[in-house]
Each structure stands twice: as structure tokens, then as C-alpha cells.
Amino acid sequence: MQGTAAEGRGPVRYGPPAPGPGLPVLPALAAALASAARHAEPEPPGGGSALREAACGYWLRRGLATTPERVVAAPGAQALLIALFGAYDGDVLMPRPCPAWWTPQARLLGRAAYHVPTPAECGGVPDPYALLETVRRVRAEGGRPRLLLLCVADDPTATVAPPETVREACEAAVAEGLHIISDETWRDTVHHPHESLPISPAEMCPDDVTVLADLGGALTPPGWPAAVARFPGTTADARHRARTLDVLTAIGAVVAAPVAAAATLALAEPAPVVERARRAATLHARLAAAAHQAVLDAGALARPPQAGRHLYADLGPFRARLAELGVTDSMELEEYLTARLAAPAPGGHRFGDELGALRVRLATGPLLGATEAQRLDALEAADPLQLPHVSAALSHFSSVLADLA
Asked: Is the pTM higher than 0.90?
């Protein structure tokens, strides 16, 4: 893929981390990690049997039966995606916008990466007609489109793609011979699961979808890197799994034994883990809804957040005022808002959006408070928005946006 003007202007290529929960480590997970701290040996490449069996149980509870022989674990989604790129040859297609780390992974391996527009109602999944047109164009130019990345519960847009949209995109991809990698890291952070439950592409196209999930999305602390992948049950994909293991072995990407112990417990989903994930999702849903309303009240645009710990705002309506402040693109917008909010505010250029579009991902974690005690208070409060420190953080957030109107 051709470089962009943004690449020469600063650290664009390497994106920011995903929005964290901002919450203390769950005691049950801390105990599991501590109990395995004496284990000096790492897990074998691809994960030990206990970790992979726990991943099977996790997916079975979500309607995706599998076996340990079809599962691979790695120290984080980045390492796992690198290995998957190494296993599946060819050019990569992904929605625009997309997670900040996807495009750099493809570029690191010298793969061409093409961004495809998303439908108006959601992000994370390409518009099927735009996907078909992109595939035809890439082939006409001599490319070899092979992989499609998507995420039904999306970073950065915080939307959940409707099932019919997912089906149409997947059917278009399969018809063109693309293998799909479905990043389902955020599926357990959905704000209102009874209203917008993510449907995995693997349920629709079981022989053509590899599922990827970083446990830091909802189950484990982001600083304890662990991710799992579920391969289809075909003979060809058994070879792809073997190749993925080869890559993980070659780069030494193995899960540390203490982290594996905590990840195994998290994937088993005992009551404390399930309760923490549910309460965290509810808390961030409240914060995201309040932040979204502040964006709209100021006169900016954003889709209603449905998952995750963030929202994706379009500050294009403030273009004239921002220009007066010396802000004319998303890189300058990132610098300006990060300073004003005293919190990371990565611009849309990091997610594959055009540099000139004034879009930004705003995380809800910084609204929880500055101390562990404040963040726990927010988690346990019946109405966290009424807590003085949360109310003050939201007021500051709103005033920064209002100043741009």
C-alpha cells in the first residue's frame, strides 16, 4: 500500500494501545497468577493443553464448538496476528477505520494492505459492494487479495455490526476466495447485550473464518498479554495452524506460565470473572453514553457507542474554529486534544482514516478517576455519574468540546 503524508510527520505507523478498563486487577486473577509465579518454564508455542481447553469452553458457551487441536494461544493479539499473516499468504483487506495496530502488522511483513469503506450504520465490517469493488481493483492492478480482517464489535468506532451486514460482507468475501480473520476482542464488552449481541462470522461461514480474541478486551488485565485463535476444521486450515505455530516458535512468542494460569482461569469464566466483566461493561456504557451526549451537545458527530471503552468522534463541524487554533488535520487534533484533556486522544489517521478528516477516538477510562480508590468507587456506585470526581471529569470533557463550537 502506498504511504501517506502522515507517515513523514510523526509516529503514525505505530498506533496507541487499545482503551483499557481503568480498573484494578481482579483478586481472583491476581491469585491465579501469583500461584504460578514459581513456574520458570514458559508455555509451549501455541499454548499448553489447559489453556487451549479453556479456550474451547469459552467458545462453546458462545455457540462455537471447537477442539484444542484447532486452538492457538500467543502473548497478545499483535504476536498472534503476525503469525496468522505468516500462515496465510497474500494481500490484506480491512475496514476503514480499523484498529490502529492492524495496518502496521501487515506493513511489517511487507504485505499490501487496502482499506475498504464501512456502511453508514456501523464500523468494523466493510461495505460488501465496496469490498467487491476493491477486490476487483486490486486484482486488476496485479495484487493477490487473500485475507479480510474485520471486527463485529469494533475498535475504534465502538459499534456492533448488525447480523445481516456481517453476513453480506462475509458472503462477498468468501465468494471472492478471501479467508476472514474475525477479531472478537471486544465482543464481551457490549453495553446492552440484549439489544446488540455480536454474531461471529464463524457461525455464518464456519470453513472460512479464523477467530482471534485478545483476553485483555474483557477478561484479563491488558498488561498481561494473552490471546487465542480458533481455526476452522478443514484440512487446509490445519496446515495454516501448523504454519502459525512455526511463526510463533521462530519469534519466541510464547505465553508466560503465570499469565497462562490467569488466562486459563479467565477463560473458564468463574463467577468473579463474569461479574467483573459485566459490571465493567455496564460502567463504561454509562460513561460512553454521557461522553457521546457531550459530543452531540457541543455540535460534533459520533455514532452511539455500543461496545468497548471509547467512542469515535468526528469534529469536522468545528473545522473553522480548529483552524484558528492551528489544527487542520487529525494529527494536530490528536496533539491538541491530548493536551487539553490530559488523556490520550488518538487521531483518525492512526486507524486508517484520511489525515484531513478531523476524527478522534476518545476513551472512557480516564473519566473513572485518578486513583485506584476512585475507580473502584465508580465500579461499585449505583450511579457513577453522580460521583464528584466522575462528574468533574465529564464536566471538563464537555467544556473542552464546547470551547471548539
From this structure: yes
